[in-house]
Specification:
By secondary structure, this protein is α/β, with parallel strands linked by helices. Helix content is about 30%, strand content about 30%. It has six helices and 13 strands.
Amino acid sequence: RQIKGCSKNILKHIIKNPREIYSTLIISPPACGKTTVIRDIARVLGTGSTFPEFKGVSVGIIDERSEIAACYNGVPSNDVGKMTDVYDACPKEKGIMMMIRCMAPEVIITDEIGGTGDALAVESAMNAGVKIIATAHGRRLSDMKVRKEIATMMNVGVFEKYITLSCDDGPATLKEVVNNVN
């Protein structure tokens, strides 16, 4: 379900200026609000906001398991932003490549990266000048360094920010923000 405004505390760490964001990996254990948060981030980035100030950009969502936009007959059931395109039920690796080639997004958002081929697709997006916001399961940043695909992305500097969430004070509790670790 969507909770509008739930990304408020996180957006200030993702938005660089009114027209630009940082590529960000959001890390948390299962059921701590990652998907709900990136849904709200997509809504804000794809529509714009007055606080924090953001003009809005073209966003592409790769929704492999139909959890972010919750499309029904090709139409998002959730508000994911006015300038947002969604590839529903599409594997991340293929979806990211198709989105870059066909939709010209400024930002790609996807959930639970780390599968085979994800690193190559995300690196291709980075090389095309597309910012990435993605999530991964883990309790801390160090958990990511032992996952092959995510470690590869970290080593080439795909992500500019790492945000760790917990459930300590309810879902999507902001636990830690780390700038690029390279």
